Amino acid sequence: MFNCQSEYVSLGKAEKPNTKAIPETIEESQVESISLEGKHILIAEDQPVNAEILKMLLEMEGMTSELAEDGQKAVELFKQNETGHFDAILMDMRMPIMDGLEATREIRGLNHVDAKTIPIIAMTANAFEEDVKQCIEAGMNAHHSKPVNMDVLKEILAQRLAKKEIKP
């Protein structure tokens, strides 16, 4: 259940970003120079309340979003939009029809310009080391344990977007 009165939205346990999920080092100044204002995020989340709260939190930070209520719809939304439409994907792990791991593998395998480079961040209560490993092996760039801590999520997004912007 959500507790909007606190710093955390109750979606699970928030922790600092897993550095194993962020293998390359980015200079702090490069991360700080990335603005999240105006970024467009694909949210793959099957729980309507969780999705709406995440959407609201992103909007409070100046971001926009689109929602896919299962992994298959996330893949379809990504596939049918042009290059650069989405800046990142926040992917729940446990969804009907297609889970987050399978959806990530599908996206990474697409013949779409952004398929290999779009940051995909796991958003899940599954926070064991094995869960993080599975996310990274599936092609995700980072793992954020629920509940959503917006400071941590903003840091992860800034790191991943900085990495994407400085690639040759």
> Radius of gyration over alpha carbons?
14 Å
Helix content: 25-40%
Percentage of residues in DSSP E strands: 5-15%
What is the N-to-C succession of helices and strands?
HEHEHEHEHEH
Low-confidence stretches: 1-27
Rough outline: globular
* Main β-sheet, spatial strand arrangement: 2-1-3-4-5
List the quaternary state of the chains: single chain
Secondary-structure-derived class: alpha/beta
How many strand segments? 5
What is the count of DSSP helices, taking H or I runs of 4+ residues?
Answer: 6
Q: Topology of this protein?
A:
Blueprint: H1 28-32, E1 40-44, H2 48-60, E2 64-68, H3 71-80, E3 88-92, H4 100-108, E4 120-124, H5 129-138, E5 142-145, H6 150-166
Parallel strand pairs: 1-2, 1-3, 3-4, 4-5
Helix pairs in contact: 3-4
